[in-house]
């Protein structure tokens, strides 16, 4: 693989990685905004669908048989599965599955949960169940912009673009390593650090004693297009790296190349 090919692959992978990162962030923001913008006790379903639900339980509740359900529709069923300790705030919670009949009509319904031994008490949980006629109606009302226009959950979108961003970033890293190797074979290295010390600039690059660089060596400085723009004088050198001062007539930039004279 030639240097030009490596540069092309690295540039393309970098663009795709940046695009995937952007889409991942937008998906997460869209998912969070739609989640927090909707009442946690509001449930949207289609006829025949079911969803897991949970809520707080009173102190006297020890098992699912201590709870009762009230609803304004016989076509909505809530089955309790277990009583468990709350993860964030402690206390007792109930867990169950809310299911709808396949013949239920579109509209808004209510489902409340209370203890059997407190028939007149305030419900532990009150759900508002919105039933939509079909998938198109549900999608049209979705709080998520991504889901509203594509029919795909923003969390599925985030789960897709995150690994793609990781893979493309890995390709960028591998191409950078290969590019550094090819440049070194030509006696060149890209500047990876620029700092200003007093009135002079210092640059660091991946050429060292293995490539014949010594303290006091004067190397050529090339711009992004390969045109000579100045020189650097080595002040510190290691086996694979060196630091040099830049001539005062040149302002170094990231991506400039240092070449053996």
What's the number of extended β-strand segments?
13
- Net shape: elongated
Backbone CA Rg: 32 Å
| Largest sheet geometry | 6 strands, antiparallel, barrel
Low-confidence stretches: none
Largest sheet strand order = 8-9-12-11-10-13
Task: Round the mean pLDDT to the nearest integer and report it.
Answer: 89
Q: What class do helices, strands and sheet pairing give? A: alpha+beta
Description:
It is built from 4 helices and 13 strands. It is of the alpha+beta class and 261 residues long. The protein has a 6-stranded antiparallel barrel. Strands 1-7-6-3 form a 4-stranded mixed sheet, with no helix packed on it. The two termini are 25 Å apart.
Please tag this protein with its features.
261 residues; alpha+beta; 4 helices; 34% strand
Q: What secondary-structure arrangement, pairings included, does this model have?
A:
Blueprint lengths: L2 H34 L5 E4 L4 E7 L10 E5 L4 E10 L6 E9 L6 E9 L9 E7 L3 H6 L4 H6 L3 H32 L2 E10 L2 E6 L12 E5 L5 E10 L4 E5 L10 E3 L2
Parallel strand pairs: 1-7
Antiparallel strand pairs: 2-5, 3-6, 4-5, 6-7, 8-9, 8-13, 9-12, 10-11, 10-13, 11-12
Brief digest:
The chain is an alpha+beta fold. The protein has helices at 3-36, 135-140, 145-150, 154-185; strands at residues 42-45, 50-56, 67-71, 76-85, 92-100, 107-115, 125-131, 188-197, 200-205, 218-222, 228-237, 242-246, 257-259. The chain has four helices and 13 strands.
